Here is the input.
Amino acid sequence: MGKLVLAVSMSLDGFIAGPNHSVENGMGEGGDRLHDWMFQSEGTALPNRSASEIDGRQSFKSDTINADVMQDYFDSTGAFLMGRRWFDHGEGPWGKNPPFNVPVFVVTHRKREKLVKGKTSFTFVTDGLQAAVREAKAAAGEKNITTGGSDIPRQLLQAGLLDEMLLSIVPVLLGRGIPLFDKAMRKHIELEKISVIDAPGVTHIRYKVLK
Amino acid sequence: MGKLVLAVSMSLDGFIAGPNHSVENGMGEGGDRLHDWMFQSEGTALPNRSASEIDGRQSFKSDTINADVMQDYFDSTGAFLMGRRWFDHGEGPWGKNPPFNVPVFVVTHRKREKLVKGKTSFTFVTDGLQAAVREAKAAAGEKNITTGGSDIPRQLLQAGLLDEMLLSIVPVLLGRGIPLFDKAMRKHIELEKISVIDAPGVTHIRYKVLK
Here is the structure.
């Protein structure tokens, strides 16, 4: 049985996106900084690449360590679980070949027909998070369900459904934006550190959520 | 010239102490969890030790990696810079032999005579943070000035005075408490990752503050 894993890039001060995000600017002001490690090679001065420039997986240019992390992110995932915000600001930029190549389940209140683009399918689940998790688990088989964002992971944590977190901690203080962990959670949750990868421009730490 | 370094333990969700802290319970409810790595040996089931049980340095029991981190914390420091809260809740528990063994400068509004305990001196600086930094630099010589807490480091960051941060990231979500970074900062600050130590029960990441 696969695990339900949150994989997300976070600034050292806890933000997963900058302020004033919109469909056009899904990472918010300054938030693209959090994805630099995916696109920049160590020591090179590539211009910052925005997540909105992704077309399939071809655009991921990275050093070896971070490329391996990205490869494992996709290889280990049998289905993605996505909030509406992630989907909405991705749908345009992903183009005809979204990088997922597995079934994606979008938790939303808006009914919509299943969408197939390249090797990726998007299923819009309107009967709640738990239903979306069930569908994603069935689709993922032995592989993991991977999620991102902040609303969905917080709900999963609250419900005791999240198994692991892979946090890519980026050496920057954004000062403001969308926090991953919200004070509204007010819950003590013990974690177990599974692995640490000291990569160029980012630290990837994998945690098990203890229940 | 030594550097001005923040060294502090932080929960993954950004807290350096739990809620409802007081002079009697300086780490707040559940906050002692953040210092477990200093006191517990890997794989042993020592009862949790509270910072309030520290008597000199003899009580630091730890695995080799974390013991080395603690040793380096003290060895590299020529003077400590401390907020009033840190001092107030430490004064009693530290007893006659505080673990610092170098000059400590306490930023406070309350005048008080210089205090000497064992090899540690406490100087109470009432004319502001910048004055305290100057005094501490003079005392530290070639070694670092080390600070902790959250108010003082935030003021140092805002003023562009902080050189490095050594964050000991503890695998726990406290859910509430005293945050290290406050939304009130609202400032984008770039960091450079200097080193990562994957230690039992904690990840020590050292950052340079870019100016």
Remarks:
- Chain B touches chain A at residues 12-14, 30, 157, 167, 169, 171-176, 180-181, 183, 185-193, 195-196, 198, 201-203, 205, 207 (CB under 8 Å).
